[in-house]
Amino acid sequence: MKIQLPRRGVIIMVILISLLAELSPIAAAEGVAGAYGKASIPDLIEKASMYEGKRIEIEGEVIGDKMARSDGVWVAVLADGAAIGVLLSPNDASSIALLGSYARIGDRVRIQGIFHRACPDHGGDLDVHAEHVSKLAEGHATPHAIVPARVSWGFALCLSGTTLAALWRLRERRRKTS
Ligand SMILES: [Zn+2]
User: How far, in Å, from the CA of 52 to the mean position of ligand 1?
Assistant: First the structure.
């Protein structure tokens, strides 16, 4: 018994520590009342139940298309290889000019809002209802991977065409002179 008591204490400590470690994202998300806890998008998706109903803050690139609905405008925000659906007010949505695609990098934004693991308003989907949106960087067009290749191919074909024509003319001229 004398040996088992401290052991039990140790076990309880371990359980408490692991519980605290597990709860820490919630503690971070709650923080000061009304504050938004920073979260990564992959974390929100993987540990969704921990963030359920919490005020969270994410940063990422706005991608895809704006989808206007009766209660706001949907966009997708991408960071660290994962994207999440974010519902914006029409006013906030209008501040986003460029959405990322294959040919361009979208606006980079910071979203503060409420996270829902299974949103009751939106068919049980995982989403974020944005309350504050701030733009961190403007989007821009990105050099398209295929276009320069196409351009150089076109240029090469054009060049070989003129070279062939020049060679043919030269040969014709030689034939005439000889
Ligand atoms: Zn929702």
Answer: 12
User: For a pLDDT cut of 90, what percent of the chain falls above it?
Assistant: 59
Distance 84 CA to ligand 1 centre (A): 11
Q: At residue 5, does pLDDT exceed 50?
A: no
Q: How far is the CA of 54 from the centre of ligand 1 (A)?
A: 13
Domain that includes residue 156, residue range: 144-178
Q: What pLDDT sits at residue 118?
A: 97
Domain co-membership, 151 together with 71: no
Q: Which pair of tokens denotes residue 110?
A: 């910071």
Closest-CA residue to 142 (of 104, 98, 107): 104
Total structural domains in the chain? 2
Kindly give the distance from the C-alpha atom of residue 125 to the centroid of ligand 1, in angstroms, as a whole number. Answer: 7
